[in-house]
Amino acid sequence: MSDLTIYPAELGAMSVAELAALAPAELAEVSQHLEELVAWTKEARAKLEAALDARYGEQARAARLQAGKDFGVVHLCDGPLRVTADLPKRVEWDQPRLAEIVRRIRALGEDPEEYVETAYRVSETKFNAWPESLKSAFTPARTLKPGKPSFRLALVEE
Q1: Above pLDDT 70, what percent of the chain?
Q2: Are 63 and 74 contacting, i.e. CB atoms less than 8 angstroms apart?
């Protein structure tokens, strides 16, 4: 990071109005330094997580094996340090296979919604390429919501 003229402690104490009133160069500086800080923090966190896995990963795997589970939380002790190691499970479903199962359930005269949640999505790119006659049928089911605004700052050479 380069030399700061607005320090993190000052930034934390500033109100939104005070930040908004900064000179353009100061806004650019704050934005750049925060981007650098976020990148540094992500990199440092990833390095620490890798170090923790190197130090405690095998113990955590052994503790899970002893507890008879493949995923979840185990607690380890390293002197006065209590380490909580969590390996969450992430389930992914094979969409074509699920669709086939839903067809079979429906063919048996049962309601697949008792077993399966269905979510419909339409690609915005495809929707925009459709003819108006097709779009008009889907438009009542489409809602546009604003995302979170973002701004990028760059000083322009004068």
Answers
A1: 96
A2: yes
User: In 3-state terms, the chain is what percent helix, strand and coil (to 5)?
Assistant: 55, 10, 35
Residues 6+ apart with CB under 8 A from 88: 71, 72
- What is the tens place of the pLDDT at every residue in 129-148? 999 999 999 999 999 988 88
Beta carbons within 10 angstroms of residue 30's beta carbon: 20
Q: How far apart are CA 158 and CA 155, in angstroms?
A: 9
Q: 70 with 64: CB under 8 angstroms?
A: yes
- Beta strands 72-78; 81-87: pairing state: antiparallel
Q: What is residue 4's predicted lDDT score, i.e. its pLDDT?
A: 66
Rounded Cα gap, residues 74 and 62, in angstroms = 10
